[in-house]
Amino acid sequence: MPIDTLVLHYTGMLTARDAIDRLRDPAAKVSSHYVVEEDGTVWRLVNERRRAYHAGVSYWHGNTGLNDRSIGIEIVNPGHAYGYPDFPVLQLSVVCDLCLEILSRHAIAPRDIVAHSDIAPDRKEDPGEKFDWEGLARNGVGLWPEGAPDLGTGDAVRDTASLRDVRRALAAIGYRVAPEGPLDPALATVLRAFQRHWRPEAVTGQADAGTLARLLAVARLCAPARADTNR
What range(s) does the N-acetylmuramoyl-L-alanine amidase domain occupy (predicted)? Predict the structure, then answer.
């Protein structure tokens, strides 16, 4: 089927060689289309016309099994389990250029350029809160809500009406959430995924004032994004 989603990951392994060896091992049953090393070296492991097994059990905008419709980029970084270092500037620049090349070949809407944690928030946290989503968006890759105020944290909203608005906004962005319910562990998990992508300064799982402002701003950006692709 047509490619309409771009998923960014970190490798979560100690070295680039470890990650590439695993992604090329048939017994591992995982793969990605590209790997970007810390020094900017790019490896193509799977042709874009073929399915790679990078997304796993996943959901975005009503679609499941996103391996069938997405391109996956693995960014070499040991991840949270191994200290989670910063992404080098050169590596981020190359990732941005690679994304732009992919967007020139596929009609992928800005809101469908996502983190692995966005499409599998109960399983994944990559590429994480240190990844420069804002910088990518300023260069034409993905979305970032310019001008959304940072209202701090404060108390999390817990009233039914406000939580209904939170859930609606998350669903409008693309996450799978129940339409009704309290601030339960499932909602907190999705909120942490949102925060890793769009509010990295406060990955708390709480629907605080700053998160609500950023959430509503991103939801507004997402509304027309299906028709307005990067092509």
Answer: 1-128
- Over the Cα atoms of the chain, what is R_g? 17
The domain limits of the chain are 5-138, 160-222
Catalytic residues: 74
The topology (CATH level 3) of 160-222 is: Muramoyl-pentapeptide Carboxypeptidase; domain 1 (1.10.101)
Q: Do the domains 160-222 and 5-138 match in fold? A: no
Helix or strand or coil: residue 44? strand
Instruction: From 19, 230, 10, select the one nearest 117 (Cα to Cα).
Output: 10
Distance CA 214, CA 92 (A): 23
The pLDDT tens digits of the residues spanning 143-154 come to 999 887 676 666
Q: 70-111 pLDDT, tens per residue?
A: 999 999 999 999 999 999 999 999 999 999 999 999 999 999
Which long-range contacts link 80-83 to residues 24+ away (Cβ below 8 Å)?
80/12, 80/125, 80/128, 81/12, 82/12, 82/14
The model's pTM: 0.93
